Structure formats: structure tokens, C-alpha cells
Hints:
By secondary structure, this protein is an alpha+beta fold.
Amino acid sequence: MSTVAWFNCFGGIAGDMALGSLIDAGADVDEVRQMCEHLPVGGWSLDAEPVLRGGIAATHAKVTCERTTVVRTATHITGLIEQARLPDRARDRALKTFTMLAEVEGRLHGRPPAQVHFHEVGALDSIIDIVGTCAALEILGIDEVRSGPVSNGMGSIRAAHGILPNPPPAVVRLLEGAPTVGLDIPLELTTPTGAALLAATVTEWGPMPAMTISTSGFGAGSRELEGRPNVTQVVVGTAEETLVTGQPILLFEVNVDDATGEALAHTMAQLLAAGANDAWITPILMKKGRPAHTVSALADPAAAKRIAEVMTAETGSLGIRAQRYERWPAAREQDSVHVEGHAIRVKVTAGRTKIEYEDAARVARQLDLPLREVIGLAETAWRAGRTGPHPL
């Protein structure tokens, strides 16, 4: 059974908010402080202050540091973490957090990640926030980290590089693939530190998972927000093993009664090209006996916007519908064989082996052979290249 921490980022998330929520949920601040003291750097202190934010009792993790003009590189910071005698899982989570930050900042500023200079994130208080959060996860025995949608503000903010859009570019990049919510609040609700901690540790996004709750806590931001508690919530519990969660998937559908077969085939091809996992057409009978078709497509949530746009544009429909499902895809691997010098991809699972149709059709045309013969030659070639049992 695994212990899960689920972050509810309805008010955004920052490094101090993540750390504060875990301390509020029961991570001993003295133990967190002792782990952070293994870092070969001084001049800081960590305190946990009980506060109220929007009427909610929360913990503010306050890191106080000596003023310094030191600007640390990614290599410098990872070196500090590697030198610290941290538990393996806490060390790995902290290193991954800074690695992801370095990669994102490197892409944004056009330089290798190792040479990225951190300003706000490289400040000592942010280093303590990140390492302290990873230490708190370890103290609570967290095996999995999950999170709900992440709230962001709007407008612009001032940073070391000048005026930046809100949410900052680094936050947007770090949250790629994560569910996010924009709020009409002209403040930075989610910081690069908070986004990096989520990006590095979260294994699943979505609503609170099935669990037996053991504790929870609120981590406070440094200011009050009008009409909204400036806090991040964490819920800790034991995952329910009886409920197996699959990968989230969306089913998009639209009914059309005025499309030709050629238009439907083109729509299906465009949906697949846009990133749909699968697409198909089903004949139906609509009201007044009108023959029609349902256009369906399965897609990952990250591709939802694009799939919806393509389905609407290609069918000319006034609206489409979608449902959330879960899927359990079988583990698979890609292999390849050669038939008469032509490469053909092979998809291998535990139960079967499937020759890629497009490759086999291409080779059949090039060799002027029947498709079934090329598929048979490819299967024979794959068998010959295997040792031991195989699905065929």
C-alpha cells in the first residue's frame, strides 16, 4: 500500500506554500530543518508560523536568509544537493526539481541547462523551500505525489529579467500537460519554484484520488488575498488498492447527417494527424429516419483543445460532446524487420505481434507484391530474429 500526498492548488502554489502545507499536515519542522542543515551552505533559518489566510488556519514556512549578491548556476545548486547527506528519495526529488527548472530556463534563454544562472529560484530561501519540501515528503513517508488543477493569476509581474507576463513563461513551460485554471487576480499565484516541485514530483493529475485520509494541511502564502484564501492544501492518505486508476482519456463525438463519405474519411485522417489515439465512424439513424454518422475520437486530455477544434472545423458542426474515461493500455515495444531490404515496423505486446500496416503497404507497392505476402514475410523475419517464446 502506498502513501499519497494530493495537492489542492486552488490558490496556486509556491515553494513556501508547499513546504508549509506538509509541515501543517504533520511533517516535523525540526526534522525538516535538520535535513536542510546537511546542505553545505549557511546563513539561513527556517520557522513554521501559524497564520490565518482568508479565515483558514494555515502554516507559513518562513525562511530568513542573510542578504547576498551570489547568483548560483544550476551546476552549483545540484552540487550543493549532491554533497548533502539527504535520504535518497529526498535527494532525487530535489535534484529533479532543479534539473527541470534548468532545462526550462535554458530553453527560454537559449543556453545549456548547466550554464543557467538562477536569480529568484537560485536564492537561498528558494533552495531551502525546495529541499525542505522534499525532506517533508520523506518525513511523511510519501510514495506518490498527485495534484489537482493549478491556479494562476493574470497581468504582469516584475522579475530579475524585468517585466514578465503572468503566469511567468517558466511556469507555463513547467505545467505543460497539467490541468490549469486562470483566475482574474493580478498577482503571481503559482511561482516557478512551486510549478517545478509539481512537475518533478507529481505522477498523476486530477481530482483527489481514492484514499483513506490520514492527515491534511494548509500552507500559507506571504500575503492576504481579497476574497480568497492564499493557501495550498495537501491531503495525505493511503491509496485504495481495490480501486485501480487507469490513464485518463477523453472520448469526443459529433453526429453529422450532411457529410459525404470522402469528407468523413478526411475528418478521421485529420483527427489522427492532430494527435487522436484512435478515430472511427459509426452509421446511425437520426430523427425522422435520417441516415447519419457519429464521428468519434479518443484523445489524451493534453490534446483536447486541438482535437475539439479539428472535429468542429472538419464536420462543420455547431457543437461536439466529450466524456471522460480511463484506459489501461498494454505494455508494448517497437521492433523492426527488413523485407527485401525495406524496413517494416513491428508492434510487440505480451499477447501478440502486429505488423504496421502503413509500412507493409508501402513495401508491397515498392516490391509489387500482395500485401498479405509482405505481412507474412515480415512475420517470418521477426520470428527468425527472436530467441525463445514469442507472441506469434
